[in-house]
Amino acid sequence: MSLNNENEYKGRLIAAVKKEVKQVMEESVTRKFVHEESGSVTSLCAAVEACLSQGLRRRALGLFKTSSTTALLHKIAKHSREAAIISKKVQEIENSDPNRRSSSSSESLTKPTLKKNHSLPSTPLPKYLWIRLALFEKQLAKIIDYLVSNANKYYDKDALVADPDYGSILSSLLVGPCALDYSRTKTPDHFWTDPPADELVQRHRISSSHSTPPPVRRPILNFRRSLNASSEDSITNRTTTQHLAKDYVESLHQNSRATLLFGKNNVLVLPVNADVSQPMPGYLSLHQTASGLTIKWTPNQLMNGFTDEVQDKSVFWDYALQVRLDEIVYVHCHQDSETGGTVILVGQDGVQRPPIHFPKGGHMLAFLSCIETGLLPRGRLDPPLWSQRCSNKRRRPLPALSETEETTKDYVFRIADNTTHKDILKQNELMDTHIALPPKSRVQLPSTSTSSESSTKSFSIDQNAPDSPPSICIQAVCDSMKRQIISRAFYGWLAYCRHLSTVRTHLSGLVNSKIVNGEGASDGITVEKWNELCTDGVVTDHAELYRLTYFGGIAHDLRKDLWPYLLGHYKFGSTTQQRMELSEETKQAYENTMSEWLAVEAIVRQRDKETQANAIAKLSSESMSGEQVPAQIQRDLSNEVFEDNISDEDSGPNVEEEDKPERTRQNTIKYDSDPEQDEKEERYQQQQLKDFIHNVIVTNASVDMGNLGSEIEANGHRNDLDVVAEENSSLDTCIETHGLASPAMSTCVSPASSNGGVYSQELLETFGLNLHRIEKDVQRCDRNYWYFTVENLDKLRNVMCTYVWEHLDIGYMQGMCDLVAPLLVIFNDESLTYACFCHLMERMVENFPNGNAMDCHFANMRSLIQILDSEMYELMHSHGDYTHFYFCYRWFLLDFKRELVYPDVYATWEVIWAAQHVASSHFVLFLALALLETYRDIILSNCMDFTDIIKFFNEMAERHNAAAVLSLARDLVLQLQLLIENK
Amino acid sequence: MGSRVNMRPTSKNTLLKVVILGDGGVGKSCLMNRFVSNQFDEHSFHTIGVEFLNKDIEIDGETYTLQIWDTAGQERFKTLRTPFYRGSDICMLTYAIDDKHSFRNLQMWKNEFLYYADVKENVQFPFIVIGNKSDVEANEREVSQVEMETWCNENAISACIETSAKNASNVQEAFATAVQHWLRLENRADKNECLYTDTVDLTKKQSENRTSCCINASDE
Ligand SMILES: Nc1nc2c(ncn2[C@@H]2O[C@H](COP(=O)(O)OP(=O)(O)OP(=O)(O)O)[C@@H](O)[C@H]2O)c(=O)[nH]1
Ligand SMILES: [Mg+2]
């Protein structure tokens, strides 16, 4: 074999390993662990085996068996501890199963002779056995390391393992996979289906019953720093040049320990120790691990694969750059219009790292932005890169960095640490007094401006900073350094104080400062209490009413009377008489509004029929190949909704379709003004009865618009469609004539025009669209709850439509029905429900997509968890996107309505309403927190990621112990109140 | 001798992220539930936020795990659902055959997906168009198969199918087709795979046969 071929082959072998490594690493990212039986593990083992077999000196070593690498393992076991471990395991497995070698079945491997034994795949390729084991035991890289270092003993001179480049690359490639956790716990058909929430909760109950206290009682106001606990994993610690190759591998992948936050190629750096004079291009990446952020830069020469040239690359490993961000204090940014900008990192030691030159295209800003995000929550850029306005959702970068009008603009950011002094939180009153003292700490210390080419604008507040002559004596340097050290400590501390103070100020807005005592309130409002509170029909002591409700809820039968108070519909101090008048007014107004939109609905309904007829007619005409369509389907109405307004004769694409002639007939019948009687009946039965009532309304509308409301009321069965259809014969005739007449009518006068053009086209369309949505969602609202019969669903629909009609600018949004439903169940009265719903929506509307309450909720959740449960926060943060809190979305949107069963919804809602007057107007936050805390141990012990937690809470819906959650939420409010009160 | 080295990993447990998009009420959640648990609940809730379920599916002897994401259909909830588009492997564009409007909105859904999923311009993404509620009476139908296929042709989508979550017709097939479609594109992409460049240039032209379910399909 020629040298070239040989090399090419080795390159291919390595490339194959790389590919499989990549596969495995990607798998670990998407799935949190890799299954031992995963195909990619097998492939990886195969690829490794191929590398290890190549150039093996079998003869010299006396290795003639088929699986010679296994023999090799046993051989080196004498010298390598890692190999010895694996060798022993392999032998144990082989001994434990005498059939092992002859049978390809590994069923018997499930015998738990060794802890890991039964982990073996059910259909393994036996020759990879040791490689698999070594991988699962995380020893593979070390074993190969050993082989590489001692290659001359076992391998031919030109073997891959003996190759100075390929050998070390091989072992370094495997470091990543060796750091992963492999799982074998799942049966093949459940490979990636995570255990259902039920099971998790069950498991937790069992395991925690004897060891840990119930999560509810767990103190969550802990300020422990969990950051240092387990952060120093092996991967992040390897910083020596010897391991650069390994880092290279990591740079390529986002693996289980490190998240790739930023990656950009062709970033120019002039390596410090390079004998080149020009900055060279390379791949810049930003990684996040448990212990912090790392910036890496890898020369392109190392990025371009291994197959192209034979050049010695070891020198490039020396050029590669790796900077841990926690060693960096300042980030200098130089911008000029020529290039994409330069970033210089300055370390704690004052030494600057090689300048990083970005290509054009906003990459520097992107990079800084990634750093800023990555620093959270433990650190931040100071001043912040993004000036954030709380109310305004838009984030704008500092003007200096966005787009540069000036040719040159420099900026210095300090990397501020938020956590350093976390443990001294309790002293923070003391700190508060200091906070006002210094100006904004856009601090820049003198020494850092030594960066040669920097024209940095100094933000120094150290007025003594000498722009002194070069002839500085040693003493001055020492002084300067001392000052630096002191001031750095001071500013670090200062930044921390500011942070704490911000958090405190921020969180103090979430709870009421006055702590209300819950004594004697745990029974809530009972009938007896209510009789005390409501003397002669007048409720005066609203504070007590709120207090009792907050701490103990309301007896179910009283809700109908009390909720209107809580929601603000009834005024405290009002008399029975006043409230009756109010109810009458409300009812009148409601009915008036209803008559308005009912008329519009009739028109919309009519238009719908037309357009539907069009659509169907079009389909039929396609299928009928131009057969005559009933003349009644004339589009002389307002059917411009759809653009495919082709006439019947103008037959569309005549493509044949297996269409039955019956259909054509049905269509004909449907729009025929003189249908056969039986066909008509059948159709009526199929139709939603609503259609009838709409036709009735068309009648009414054309007869007497003004009296509609009272007429409907007089009818008394407006909502009871069944009754209308079955009993009211006079209506029935109406329906008959008008149901049939409507197409005919449409040929002469459209309902729209019959109403004198009162309604604009736009209004009709907007309302029509809303109507359809409402209908679709009402049909799907709480259908499994006894209350929602067809009849009551129609009440729901009416309330919803009335609200939307009155608030067309807001419009219907999914979720509103869910908010109406419990009110309707309690009141069983449309107008009262409507009035209370309007009050409820004053707060809730902000949660819907147009408002910005949801963002605030998420931000507040973030702060609360950060302060109240740092361990949880760490977990969430380590899973990246998690902190978006999307899994809370439904909770906040519907005030937990979908999370709880109906009785619990009532109990929860009234507490939320009362809470603002007693403890917190953001009580929902504490409920959310309580829910999280209730399951915190499950979440933490299962190391749930973003998707897990969404799934978990979706599955836990309606299974929570509401009483416990409510009481925990109240506790949390109190804890925060105490914390802020700081006594 | 390099043949074994270059073998493809057996991907019997590949995880595929599937998002189901379409107007509210077209039956996305019902489709997902029919597929995952073979159940149909006429009165299921409309979706708030996002939900997902996992389900294994076997194609050509290999098992794939589908992680199916179901989102709310109302346009206004865009900011909530779009973050979940990223990293999708398959996108199901769903409408109801008795709702022309939902069909018209397919374009919007496709655009929204492409925009937020960050799919590269010239990359063929495995879309599948689903016309749900095929069980409805013929006289309720507002969108014909031909219209669906025409739209797919115009949008260079080669997989489409009519389903019914209610009577289970074609539901398994729809998901299977989607995975097969993904596989074909994936295989094609693989040939062009290049390990260390971050831009993978895929063949821009689509050339393979369309899925069998499009009976009247013409060639692209
Ligand atoms: N006839 C028929 N009805 C269906 C079918 N699939 C769903 N439905 C009905 O259509 C309605 C809406 O179904 P969903 O699955 O909730 O719709 P969705 O697309 O998830 O809607 P959103 O969650 O609002 O986005 C339900 O009431 C179902 O009963 C079907 O195949 N045939
Ligand atoms: Mg849904």
TrEMBL record, chain A:
Limits of the Rab-GAP TBC domain: 553-916
Annotated SMART domains: RUN, TBC
Transmembrane segments: none
GO MF terms, alphabetically ordered: GTPase activator activity
Gene Ontology annotations for the cellular component aspect, listed alphabetically: cytoplasmic vesicle
Compositionally biased residues, Low complexity: 101-112, 447-460
CDD domains membership: PH_RUTBC, RUN_SGSM1_like
A Pfam match: RUN
Domain RUN: 35-189
Region annotation (Disordered) ranges: 93-118, 437-467, 643-684
UniProt cross-references to Gene3D superfamilies, sorted A to Z: 1.20.58.900, 2.30.29.230, putative rabgap domain of human tbc1 domain family member 14 like domains, Ypt/Rab-GAP domain of gyp1p, domain 3
Keywords, in A-Z order: GTPase activation
Signal peptide extent: none
Biased composition (Acidic residues): 643-659
Family stated for the protein in its record: Belongs to the RUTBC family.
Protein's recorded name: Small G protein signaling modulator 1
Natural source organism: Zophobas morio
Automatic annotation (TrEMBL), chain B:
Gene Ontology molecular function, alphabetical: G protein activity; GTP binding
Annotated EC: 3.6.5.2
Annotated localization: Cell membrane; Cytoplasmic vesicle, Phagosome membrane
Membrane topology: Lipid-anchor
A Pfam match: Ras
Catalysis performed (reactions): GTP + H2O = GDP + phosphate + H(+)
Major location (coarse): membrane
GO biological process, one term: retrograde transport, endosome to Golgi
Keywords: Cell membrane, Cytoplasmic vesicle, GTP-binding, Hydrolase, Lipoprotein, Membrane, Nucleotide-binding, Phosphoprotein, Prenylation, Protein transport, Transport
Cofactor: Mg(2+)
PROSITE patterns: RAB (PS51419), RAS (PS51421), RHO (PS51420)
SUPFAM superfamilies hit by this protein: P-loop containing nucleoside triphosphate hydrolases (SSF52540)
GO cellular component assignments: cytosol; late endosome; lysosome; phagocytic vesicle membrane; plasma membrane
InterPro entries registered for this protein in UniProt: P-loop_NTPase, Small_GTP-bd, Small_GTPase
Coiled coil: none
Family label: Belongs to the small GTPase superfamily. Rab family.
NCBIfam families (alphabetical): small_GTP
Alphabetical list of PANTHER family matching this protein: RAB FAMILY, RE17845P
Stated name of the protein: small monomeric GTPase
